[in-house]
Amino acid sequence: MSLINKEISDFTVEAFHNDDFKTVTKQDVLGKWSIFFFYPADFTFVCPTELEDLANKYEEFQKIGCEIYSVSTDTHFVHKAWHDESERIKKIQYPMLADPTHALAKDFKVLIKENGLAERGTFIVDPEGRIQSYQVNAGGVGRNADELLRLVQACQFVAEHGDQVCPAKWQPGAETLKPSLDLVGQL
Q1: DSSP labels, 89-117
Q2: How far is CA 19 from CA 36, 78, 95, in A?
Q3: Which of 47, 66, 155, 166 is catalytic?
Q4: Is pTM, for the whole model, over 0.85?
Q5: Alpha-carbon torsion (69, 19, 75, 12), positive or negative
Q6: pLDDT average per 10 residues of sequence, the chain (187 residues)
Q7: How many CB atoms lie within 10 A of CB 107?
Q8: Predicted local confidence at residue 175, as pLDDT
Q9: Residue 155 designated active-site
Q10: Residue 81 burial (CB < 10 Å; 0-12/13-18/19+)?
Q11: Strand locations in 39-87, DSSP E?
Q12: Closest CA to 155 of 134, 175, 133, 177
C-alpha cells in the first residue's frame, strides 16, 4: 500500500531542539514543507553520518521553506545526551523528535516491532500534512542530503506548477516536461 498523499495523523511528541526540550505537534508541521527523517537509534554508526550531512545542509533546506525533523524511538533525554557527547550531533539545529511510544514510527509504517526501532525512512510532507515522497533504506545504507534537497525542490515545483513534471536528474532551473499526447514514446 502506497503512502503517497496519506495525511499524517495528529501527534504530540517531545523534542530536543536548540539546547532545550519542547513539544512538537502536527499543528507545528502544517503550513510548510517538512522532512521526517527516521533513523534506528542514537549512539549508533550510520545514523550520525546522516544527521551530520543534514545538519551541514540545514540552511539550504530552510531557504526553501522546509523544516527537518529527525526521529528515533529514543527519548528526548537520550537525544540531549547524544548531542552533548558527539561532535557530529552538536552541529544539529533542527528538532530531534522522540518517539518512545512508537506513534510516529507506526503512522509512517517504519516501526520494526521485534526490536522497537524505526527503519531508515525519509518522508517529504507538504504544507497540508500529506506525504509527497518517501524512501525506506536497509539499516546499513545511509542517505544523501543533496539528493533529499533535490527531491524536496522537485516536489515543491510540481505542487506549484501542476501542469509540469520533473524528469530524472532534474535540478531547479532545468527544463521540465508538460505531459501531453505528443510526448508519449518520444523522449
Answers
A1: GGG--S-EEE-TT-HHHHHTT-EETTTTE
A2: 20, 13, 10
A3: 47
A4: yes
A5: negative
A6: 96 98 98 98 96 98 98 98 97 98 98 97 98 96 97 96 87 82 58
A7: 20
A8: 85
A9: no
A10: middle
A11: 66-72
A12: 133
